[in-house]
Amino acid sequence: MLEIKNLHVKVEEEDKKILKGVDLTLPAGEVHAIMGRNGSGKSTLSYVLAGKEGYEVTEGEILFMGKDLLEMEADERAAAGLFLAFQYPIEIPGVATMTFLKAALNAQRKTRGEEELKVPEFMKLVKDAANQLEIKQDMLKRPLNVGFSGGEKKRAEILQMALMQPSLCVLDETDSGLDIDALKIVSDGVNHLRDANRSMLVITHYQRLLNYIVPDRVHVFSDGRVVESGDRELALELEKKGYAEFDGTAA
């Protein structure tokens, strides 16, 4: 599904290297977690995967379902099945959440050469997905993320993911700002989307999220590289010992 080879990335127009040779393989159907300190490069990796501007790949390659991801624009990556759930979802005043969802879903379908959904079809899809995430209909009428709590913003992101049905889901610190109840609801929504044809890359600081979204593999980031990989027991080890043991360690 995703293969990252010797990826080096710096901030554009600056001599600031962030990723320094990332190697990572994510097979179809698996959930992998990336853990690491602040500033280790975790979020930068998610931004580069999604095609966010401001970063320059100086070396390496990224293959997504066998295709060169770096040759694709951000909208092409989304249409191909890549979805990024942001740590801090942006607010869009004046645009109702339902309007945004319909426009995004139909834009994706149009890019893929599919017919746009009619209103009844769309409403049924949203209703079913919203019920799964305990999202009330009045929330869907409000401007996207404006005045939303942390939990509501994350549920709205997972709702988008449920509607888009991506092949690769990148979750950038989805647990950030969530209380325990919201964390359970969001995690249930994510787990509901797990299947043999969909892969997930879950980025987090804390092991607690991985109690609910249990990963197949865990990768530790330090100084812009993967320095250790293992099963979910590695996350438990990190919870006990912290990241100091992995600083400066080569994979």
Oligomer: single chain
Number of helices: 8
How many strand units?
Answer: 12
- Estimate percent helicity: 25-40%
Overall structural class, as computed from helix and strand content, comes to alpha/beta
Strand arrangement, largest sheet? 6-9-10-3-11-12
Return the string of H and E elements.
EEEHEEHEEHHHEHEHEEEH
List strands and helices in order, with pairings.
Elements: E1 2-11, E2 17-26, E3 31-36, H1 42-50, E4 55-64, E5 67-68, H2 74-80, E6 82-85, E7 92-96, H3 97-111, H4 119-132, H5 137-141, E8 143-144, H6 150-164, E9 168-172, H7 180-192, E10 199-204, E11 217-222, E12 225-230, H8 233-241
Parallel strand pairs: 3-10, 3-11, 6-9, 9-10
Antiparallel strand pairs: 1-2, 1-4, 4-5, 7-8, 11-12
Structure report:
The structure is a single chain. The chain has 251 residues and is α/β, with parallel strands linked by helices. 35% of the residues lie in helices and 29% in strands. It is built from eight helices and twelve strands. The protein has helices at 42-50, 74-80, 97-111, 119-132, 137-141, 150-164, 180-192, 233-241, and strands spanning 2-11, 17-26, 31-36, 55-64, 67-68, 82-85, 92-96, 143-144, 168-172, 199-204, 217-222, 225-230. The strands form three sheets. The chain has a six-stranded mixed β-sheet, with helices on both faces. A four-stranded antiparallel β-sheet has the order 2-1-4-5. A two-stranded antiparallel ribbon has the order 7-8. The longest helix has 15 residues, at 97-111. The two termini are 22 Å apart. Residues 2-248 form the ABC transporter domain.
